[in-house]
Amino acid sequence: MTERRAPYELTPVEERELPHRVLELLKAHRGSAQAITGARMAVALGYIDEQGIPQDRHIRRVIECLIEDGVLIASSVREPVGYFLVETLEEVGPYRATLKSRAMKNLKRLSNFNRGVARQFGQQYALPLKYVEPAIEELEQ
Fold this sequence. Notes:
mainly alpha; 2 domains; Arc Repressor Mutant, subunit A
């Protein structure tokens, strides 16, 4: 394992290889019971700063890209905490509920912020987003 020292940016080779390395690591963490934190992934992949602190920024970005590419990576905020590859339909519902809750909290925060801007500056902003429930209702269970 080659350790990188922060501050650092990914080399072109790392940019190509890191998604494959992250996915290979996640293959050992299938199902919510096998979740692994971003920090532990950073350590396993050698992304540690001079003080020995795991640097998981690139890991999180790669995970976002893998999810955009259709890889079913979920995360858990309950023990065991971390990322995992979704193995069963039973793992889908709780993760969707977490994402929906976060989205609703962020929309509420945006709405409150917009009201503050309107009070302080007189500028009005609309919330152009509307949540539409997916057609497959069974995923909620």
